[in-house]
Amino acid sequence: MFGPKNAEESLIFAIEEFVADSQYCIQKVMNEKKVSRSELARRLGCTPANVTQMLSENSNLRLDTVAKIFHALEDRCVLKSEYLESENQTQEFPALQERVS
Asked: For domain 7-76, which architecture applies?
């Protein structure tokens, strides 16, 4: 059976999944908007190698970096909680509710 065997592995899986989902979303927006890594680097004021590193498997993306990337792509990343969505809890966060809708 595949999956975490204990709490420590579960945390590692959760982090890796979050990073991979973030990178996938960035790459998908880049593809949809036809923005190359070189162009994204220009918009971010860094080198194409830095962009490649940000999107690599071993990247340690910070949330502020993710926000900067989406801003450079003229987009915005919106975090969602499975719990809040499943429990319809977004009414507690009006700004979140507007973005989820």
From this structure: Orthogonal Bundle (1.10)
Phi-psi region of 57 (alpha: psi -120 to 50; beta: other; left: phi over 0): alpha
The string of DSSP letters for the chain reads --S-SSHHHHHHHHHHHHHHHHHHHHHHHHHHHT--HHHHHHHHTS-HHHHHHHTSTT----HHHHHHHHHHTT-------HHHHHTT-GGG-HHHHHHH-
Q: Considering the entire predicted model, what is its pTM?
A: 0.77
Each residue's pLDDT, cut to its tens digit, for the chain (101 residues) gives 677 788 999 999 999 999 999 999 999 999 999 999 999 999 999 999 999 999 998 888 899 999 999 999 999 998 888 888 887 665 555 555 555 55
